[in-house]
Amino acid sequence: MSRITIAQLEAFHWTAALGSVERAAKQLNLAQPTISLRLKGLEEAIGKPLFDRSGRGVRLTPVARELMPEAQGVLLGIERMARHGEGGGVAGPVRIGVAEGFAMVCLSQILERLTGHYPRLQPDLVVATSMTLETELHKTNLDLAVLVSPAAAPGFTILPFGVQEVGWVAAAGWDLPQVVRPADLAARPVIVNPPNTASYRQTIGWFGAAGARPERLVTCSSVALQAHIIETGAAAGIYPVKMAEAAVAAGRVRVLRTDPALQDVTIAAKYAEGPPNPAIGAVLESVREVLAGMDYVRPG
Predict the structure, then answer these.
(1) Does CATH place domain 166-258 in 3.40.190.10?
(2) What count of other Cβ atoms lies within 10 Å of the Cβ of residue 127?
(3) Are strands 51-52 and 59-60 parallel, antiparallel or unpaired?
(4) Could you read off the pLDDT of 212-230 as tens digits, one per residue?
(5) What is the pLDDT of residue 300?
(6) What is the pTM assigned to this prediction?
(7) Which residues, other chains included, contact 270 with Cβ-Cβ below 8 Å and sequence gap of 6+?
(8) What is the pLDDT of residue 173?
(9) Fold adopted by 6-72
(10) Which residue from 37, 85, 187, 288 has the least number of CB within 10 angstroms?
């Protein structure tokens, strides 16, 4: 088996992140044929194609999506080693946006790791809906954000960590069938994030797949408050399955089996295009390691 090189992994990462060999070449300040040769060498080493090159741009194959987190981990590890070599360590403020549902399950562990490994780093945390955080990121009010299903935007890199399982959640006392369909919830109160959020689109899309629409829709910007309202039995809603685990174990809520099933959502970091600075690199590395240790996401 051929040896995989760091140069090949860099070419793979930037081609996947930016969506084209041309942009990856520009990012790495290399000629396009050089990037193409590195990608070809990586595919030969793995023995499987990594990109679907039909049509415009490139699309990741299932194998590439599975390998992407591994490649990112190697590159972040190399950056970390280089930072240690600099002697000064990582220091100063870093403005981090975190989607609220993800934050409720993962943020404390990420912060604990950051403060333990980078004691001179000063995280400034903003927790909100992904829609709000993306707006702040595009205004440069944040250095990076960990988001649900972020949208591509010129000048920004999206770094996927994997997909997060979401589900319909309702109070355990609700009288619902074993398999819940849109008609079973259409007349009941449903709580959701405001319009244009991923949660809102997924909720309306789930009902719309059956030609239905919720009759009693309540919008709420706080995922934590939504979970509390759902536990009281005042409404049903969609949020991360991991976030519901404690309430399910205590018998307060149940995660519903539904038809149609809900599609899991991507969790990804988004930051300004270009090599991440040491502070952003430290955050990305910490998020990846925490997620790997707690089995929160699976490959997309």
Answers:
(1) yes
(2) 19
(3) antiparallel
(4) 999 999 999 999 999 999 9
(5) 62
(6) 0.72
(7) 134, 137, 144, 145, 147, 150, 156, 157, 158, 159
(8) 95
(9) Arc Repressor Mutant, subunit A (1.10.10)
(10) 85
